[in-house]
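Repro:
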Amino acid sequence: MRSQFLGAYLFRHSGDPVAVSVCARSISLYVIPVGKAEGNLLLHERTMNSTRSKTTRRAFLQSAAAAAAGLAIFPGAAAQAASSSATGKRNIKLGLDNFSVRALGWKAGQLIDYAASLQTDSLFITDLNAFEKFEDDYLQDLRKKAADQGLQIQLGSWSVCPTSKAFKKDWGSAEEHLRLGIRMAKSLGSPVFRVVLGTGEDRLSPGGIEERISDTIGVCKTCRKDALDAGVKIAVENHAGDMQAWELVMLIEGAGKEYVGANMDSGNACWTFEDPASSLEILAPYVITTSLRDSAVWESANGATVQWTAMGEGTVDLKAYFDKFAALCPGVPVHIETISGFNRELQYLKPEFWKAWPKARASDLGKFIALAKQGKPREPWKAPAGKDRKLADQEYQKDQIERSIKYCKETLGLGLK
């Protein structure tokens, strides 16, 4: 019986276009010689007579084999084989990212009290607006307040790429913003200062994401001495669809990994059509802090849809994920950043989708498709009828993070307390 043909994906390898077709029954890979093509397009047809490529180019065969592996292996089986049950503590610090409760509008002191009430080990404050002052005395008082409750504060802010559409001048120039954050981090006792490049919109900006990466590297290099003198590492996040894991590695290596590392966001990996477990493997040598959440992923009309969820309620095998995390990222805290309840479709079955991804890799897409095949559609969250929307948001956000922290402690064995 012939497999149902689902689609073909066209990539460039060393300048040559290569098509990869996906069949339903075996999820096998076929390479189809397609001749010259313009850009990085996606072909979507229901029938096709395909032949296996007989190319002998070693580099291409390695690339195709990697893609085939990603498509042919269901991650559930491999993950289950690798996963060990959470029978005890993993010796990993557990904390929350304050963006999880953004609707509350709490300031730093209130966030410390809330984190202490949840018995976490760490508090990641990723917005400078949570601080009433930037003076050292105030920040050091907050550091003491947190330490008295068994908490370490980690600090973050937003874009330091001056050419990103997401960049704001609220804290001066990109360099001034970064220097301010480094100084504040030192006063708070934070070993890192989290920043972002921008969002997925930057991929279509003049020069594309590579130019934005170059601009961000330039800002980091200008502040290199400040970071080294303060003993604070700059933690760049894979944020809101801006970079895949390998692109973030390129940024870190370009700036210098002695003072720049990664803030790994597992939910954002899904927005760049990456399996979070694969993203972890790539970023692990560079990870210095985290903002993690679970994700539900399923196939949809134009590709796949992602809905971020509370921990343990998505498609990702979290036990296997944290088995791997514990082995690859020793000493790195887990911060939970729940941003639940809405759907985002990645329309990779539409040719225009690929304009933002001229160097997309077949293996990344293949693994993501395999993950999506395990999920089922979900409706987005809606506030209860007749309830004040602000209050509903606040209650929903608290419910999501509190359920997640409980799951992480009881099921995944995270946290020291």
